[in-house]
Amino acid sequence: MTVKKNTGLIRIENVSHTFHTDTGVLPVLNDLTLSVPKNGFTAIVGPSGCGKSTVTRLVAGLLKPDKGTVWLQGQKVNTPRDIVGMAFQNPVLLEWRTILQNVMLPLEIVPNAMSSAEREARAQDLLKLVGLSGFEQKRPSELSGGMRQRASLCRALVHRPEVLILDEPFGALDAFTREDLWQTMHRLREEEPFTGVLITHDLRESIFLADEVVVLSGRPATVQYCQKLKQRGPKSLDQLYTPEAIQTLNILREQIKIARKDEEDKL
User: Fold this and answer.
1) What's the whole-model pTM score?
2) pLDDT tens digits, residue range 113-165?
3) HEC profile for the chain?
4) Range(s) for CATH 3.40.50.300 in the chain?
5) Topology of domain 10-83+163-266, per CATH?
């Protein structure tokens, strides 16, 4: 495989990371190198526990690598950056705040010159975009899981981050809600351009949302395989059932199988 120069808005260069646990040292990443171009969307898949979420925390500045370097916009990442928005499997909305107030929360934390009226208008616009108009004054417990996740996505994007990190945000949802949110993500990406990193165990989700799928090897993980995806106009769920999509899914499944076997062989 030809090694290309690592360029992009996000650059991870020769990163290795180890956790120290009660049972000893746990190597998680080994000489990992990858990049995501500006306004690109990369999905990261791999065996459970291989270090996918560790990658997102390194990009977000929540962890520092033991070796190697993480770059955002050409600057070395040492601490959390306000150009990053994050959404997780658990929306973690604050029950004592309304949905509108939850979405506006980052605007109270991230420095900005917006007035109170501008902040509210910004949050209202996002909620409308994801189909939550009319639910602004509801509490999180009054919304379904899918609606809470929509609000979480709005909160992650409200301060217009350059980078959006999605760590299995749809994993706990039923299949129909999950597919509906995939289409919501495409609308958000069209209206609110960002550079995306998605962690997922759902291969269909990865090829529907991403421009590129990166398969990590077994732990300690490095890049095992990359699959570029063709983006052709508006996305439809029907595209997941084309011969091309089925072939891509089969390739990715085989790569996951290889990664799992390699990890078992290391044990």
Assistant:
1) 0.90
2) 889 999 999 999 999 999 999 999 999 999 999 999 999 999 999 999 999 99
3) CCCCCCCCCEEEEEEEEEEEECCEEEEEEEEEEEEECCCCEEEEECCCCCCHHHHHHHHCCCCCCCEEEEEECCEECCCCCCCEEEEECCCCCCCCCCHHHHHHHHHHHCCCCCCHHHHHHHHHHHHHHCCCCCCCCCCHHHCCHHHHHHHHHHHHHCCCCCEEEEECCCCCCCHHHHHHHHHHHHHHHHHCCCEEEEECCCHHHHHHHCCEEEEECCCCECEEEEEECCCCCCCCHHHHHCHHHHHHHHHHHHHHHHHHHHHHHHC
4) 10-83+163-266
5) Rossmann fold (3.40.50)
Pair 53, 28: CB distance under 8 Å: no
Q: Looking at this protein, which amino acid is placed at residue 183?
A: Q
User: Under a CB-based contact definition with an 8 Å cutoff, are residues 52 and 131 in contact?
Assistant: no
pLDDT in tens, 216-252: 999 899 999 999 998 655 678 898 999 999 999 999 9
Return the amino acid letter for 246.
Answer: I
8 A C-beta contact, residue 84 and residue 77: no
